[in-house]
Here is the input.
Amino acid sequence: MAYYVEKPSNSAIEAPSSDRSVSVAIKRSTDSTHTPFHHHPYAQLAFTDSGIVKVVTTHHTYVVPAQHAVWIAPGTPHAAYLLKGAQIYNVAIHPSYSIKHADRDCHCLRVSDLAKAIVKTLIHEPQGPQPSPREQALWSLLIDEVKSAAPLPLGLPMPKEKRLKHLCELFIAQPNQSLTLSALCRQVGASESTMTRLFKRELTMTFNQWRNQALLTFAAALFAQDYDFGYIAQELGYGSQSAFTAMVTKLVGIPPSVFFSASAESAFTPRANFVR
Here is the structure.
């Protein structure tokens, strides 16, 4: 059988097939690790129940907090960064299952307690030459749970142009709402007018819009670590919790107390559709 090995790790995940359409594996990180850019012919669902995982694709950066996952479409080049103490679950899904949602190769979603329980059960499920009826039932239930999980707007678009990409990476390294475009431009040695044009050309948004999307992404990661909104607002450079609340509400249409709650996905976005 074909195996896909994520380095640096001694764990391996069996490539799914038409007979065994779902494979699962767990990867634990005692130190921060980096899996370089790679791709595989099947879809992948990666989530963590401890620590934070960062997944980078050609066009987006996803900071995936605990209780959330990133869906990676077949053939999508991506790299992964695990922080110290992170534990990641990888679910490989045969490409005969395809997602019908927007036009993106990846997206974040919230992982239900049932989906997590299924994955953890499958990890320890004995495997024979042929999948058992129990395994097949668990696969079907897991796919249905993934199908029911609405995508969350936590993916951060990333540019290709070298100077603009450097600027965005500088902000991601130290996200703060008070960090201005002019200050970042001085660090990358480019004019503000040039960077403004590049934001519109490469990302079809302004710097402020991109910055708010980045701050929302990092707020989700902090919230998943059980920090309250007052602490999150302070960490992201807001003068008050109300200012942070206003930013989130303007961006997603609902306040952070609703957006980050367990039922937030049904409040602002439709169900994703899977077909096979």
Remarks:
- Confidence is low (pLDDT under 50) at residues 1-11, 262-276.
- The chain has ten helices and 15 strands.
